[in-house]
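FIELD: query
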Amino acid sequence: MNPKKVKDISIGKSFSSLIEQMGECGGFTGKYLADGFGILEQMINEKNCVKFLSFPAAIIATGLRGVIKEFVKRRMFDVIITTCGTLDHDLARSWKDYLQGDFALDDVMLEKEGFHRLGSVLVPKEAYGPLLEEKLTPFLQGLYKGGVKSLSSSELCKRLGRYVSNESSILYWSSKNNIPVIVPGITDGAVGSQLWLFSQQKRDFSIDMMKDQQILSDIVFTAKGTGALMIGGGISKHHTLWWNQFRGGLDYAVYITTAMEYDGSLSGALVREAISWGKVKPKAKQVTIHADATAILPFLAAALFERL
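FIELD: result
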């Protein structure tokens, strides 16, 4: 053991310099944030590395949507794995506004006044379910009339990106930059409900999830290296890890979470636990950052944009 001295942070420097200083400040989450920054910088600079980005839907209801959009616009990642709610919020916010709220608001009052509460974000009811039904019905009818009766979730996302045609949209930029967006739980959201309702009218219409699995198979079995920024847990994190086990694991892994590991959940599991499953390589550059992504990801992104 050869410990280094704790250094004080000097404010007023660039974002990248500030985060690098956190690596020498001796405490606490800041050190892991600096480690994550270094790993992501190296990963993104690695030309022969396929970069995965996974995240749950909740953050897309917040202004963090703009950070994720910028990652995609700048082509910093090659594959996105997320949940159906990401489609819901990305599309809805392309057409209508969400509002700032508070965790302490009266939910009974909000329901009466026509709002859904998502943490500290207010989602007007007319900006969610009814809006998505209004917009997606002609979209799906157009697909069907054009002869499209079966498509993968990634093909659906690409077509939705063209349809929404809004530069604030993650789907728009992923479609424009040909970055596949894979949604393994496509039925778990408002967009999924619209897909199901449409299939009740057109019984030969379906989402073929096996096509998505073939895309992931082609990616991981031909990749010389892989890395991932995983925000939050659940199916998007697990699907990223699951597919990378088939090539011996991720070479780079940065995980941002607020969950704890003591209940045995996947969301709380540290990245190093995935080594025992072959989902992350034993010698991978990896770190788990215990923090709220809405608080730290903008700074991490700003530092990466500045450096890269």
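FIELD: remark
The mean pLDDT is 96.
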